[in-house]
Amino acid sequence: MGFCTILCFWASKNQEFRWPIAGRKAAPGFKVAILGAAGGIGQPLAMLMKMNPLVSVLHLYDVVNAPGVTADISHMDTGAVVRGFLGQPQLESALTGMDLVIIPAGVPRKPGMTRDDLFNINAGIVKTLCEGIAKCCPNAVVNLISNPVNSTVPIAAEVFKKAGTYDPKKLLGVTMLDVVRANTFVAEVLGLDPREVNVPVVGGHAGVTILPLLSQVKPACSFTPEETEYLTKRIQDGGTEVVQAKAGAGSATLSMAYAAVKFADACLRGLRGDAGIVECAFVASQVTELPFFASKVRLGRVGAEEVYQLGPLNEYERVGLEKAKKELEASIQKGVSFIRK
Ligand SMILES: NC(=O)C1=CN([C@@H]2O[C@H](COP(=O)(O)OP(=O)(O)OC[C@H]3O[C@@H](n4cnc5c(N)ncnc54)[C@H](O)[C@@H]3O)[C@@H](O)[C@H]2O)C=CC1
Ligand SMILES: O=C([O-])CC(=O)C(=O)O
């Protein structure tokens, strides 16, 4: 039995375990925690955040395998100091002092499931983690990835309200993967490099609530009705496409880690005070009559500082918006009721 095996075995028996901290002081930068860091998204996300020069301290928390992932990531010769935290008794240490908390904790879909089918398990996980955030880092910006995002964000908001720490600017549901997919699929149709394409995706993060605004693509372009139908459907079903291809082995993890880092980096640049950082996210909103909605937001020193209106929609998008709102309303209510019941 090697040293690592002994240490991991001991760690799994000893909830007080804390991976040894490097004897180096953290450089200036942001302190970031990933909750669910040993998972399919969590691991590549941890690796990419360790590569981010804006991060000085990276806390990796999970209920399993946190020591192994931490040992592995900590050998990367990049700036951030990495610390691992295993299990509920170490949640508070993982969260204390954090500027940004990214949450990919929870179960993923299998073929045939909707994101809402994850509610029963993931709602409780998100509730517990957000209670920890309210207690230990109430001023942190939260990037919530765990599905169903349309319900988990309202759950988080209710937990923070109950604790008296709710700041709507600091709670952001991550819908970046929808934008990443939309950029990729639209670029394919237009014959462009996806890095040159920007597609706003609004609404929420499930099925028809994912509403790409193809009339607002940059660079300006137009689509035939067939292209619009194909692209809208492909973007809405992007998650299911991956779930089916993985055939029971989970959902999008690598593209999600990429999208999560793209979004987290935008949040950190906003916190640093960079101007003009605009990304789509599912946030508290007055853009429609619903209390939460995904749209473009300006990220700044305190989080989502400005939520932008949708801009002019075409008839196809107006119809899509009505469908999206109907489903979103029920998902939001389900999340709110989970805490208020
Ligand atoms: N917002 C989005 O665009 C996307 C969201 N997701 C969602 O992200 C979530 C995670 O997906 P994967 O990483 O593929 O799943 P996974 O099962 O590979 O990893 C989840 C991790 O969460 C951990 N975990 C479970 N309960 C926990 C708790 N109470 N505290 C801390 N960690 C806990 C597990 O131990 C595991 O390591 C799923 O809910 C999935 O649906 C996935 C892709 C895109
Ligand atoms: O589809 C899923 O279950 C995971 C997800 O949210 C996505 O890939 O967009």
Describe this structure in words.
The structure is a single chain. The protein is an alpha/beta fold and 341 residues long. It is globular, with a radius of gyration of 20 Å. It has 11 helices and 11 strands. The strands form 3 sheets. It has a 6-stranded parallel sheet, with helices on both faces. A 3-stranded antiparallel sheet has the order 9-10-11. Strand 1 (30-35), helix 2 (42-50) and strand 2 form a beta-alpha-beta unit. The longest helix has 26 residues, at 315-340. The chain has helices at 3-13, 42-50, 66-74, 91-95, 119-136, 149-163, 176-190, 225-236, 238-246, 254-272, 315-340; strands spanning 30-35, 55-62, 81-86, 100-103, 141-144, 171-173, 201-203, 210-212, 277-284, 292-300, 303-307. Residues 1-17 have low confidence and may be disordered. Bound molecules: 1,4-dihydronicotinamide adenine dinucleotide (NAI) and oxaloacetate ion.
